[in-house]
Automatic annotation (TrEMBL):
Keyword NADP: no
GO terms of molecular function: DNA binding
InterPro entries: ArsR-like_HTH, HTH_HxlR, WH-like_DNA-bd_sf, WH_DNA-bd_sf
Top-level taxon of the source organism: Bacteria
Ranges where the HTH hxlR-type domain occurs: 10-102
Name of the molecule in the record: Transcriptional regulator, HxlR family
Sorted UniProt keywords: DNA-binding, Transcription, Transcription regulation
The keyword Cell membrane belongs to this UniProt entry's keyword annotation: no
CDD domains registered for this protein in UniProt: HTH_ARSR
Classification via Gene3D superfamilies: Winged helix-like DNA-binding domain superfamily/Winged helix DNA-binding domain (1.10.10.10)
Organism: Marinithermus hydrothermalis (strain DSM 14884 / JCM 11576 / T1)
Length: 102
């Protein structure tokens, strides 16, 4: 059994702290195809707007995606994976392969 300090230093625990929240993997999956708007992500993830907004802020804070607001009317905002976010592709592919085997 790991104590609290060991858990905090465990790379898997640190990763799950960011990635283990509801909807995070489907957001990352959808952004692997390229930039998306909030409404596109909401339609594909089926997350409530508040939950989606919180996850996007968390992922931006973890440097996994960027938020770009364009100076247009009406306002347009797009979310796109950073290099660090795109580095998760093999992880997502492995999870998808494992999920298909169930």
């Amino acid at each position: 059994m790991m104590d609290k300090e060991q858990q905090e230093n465990c790379p898997i625990e640190r990763a799950l702290e960011i990635l283990g929240r509801r909807g995070t993997f489907v957001i990352l999956r959808d952004l692997m195809d390229g930039p998306k708007r909030f409404s596109e992500l909401q339609a594909s993830t089926h997350l409530p707007p508040r939950t989606l907004s919180m996850r996007l802020k968390e992922l931006e804070g973890a440097d996994l995606l960027t938020r770009t607001q364009y100076p247009e009317v009406p306002p347009r905002v797009e979310y796109e994976l950073t290099e660090r976010g795109r580095a998760l592709k093999p992880v997502l592919d492995a999870l998808a392969a494992w999920g298909e085997s169930l």
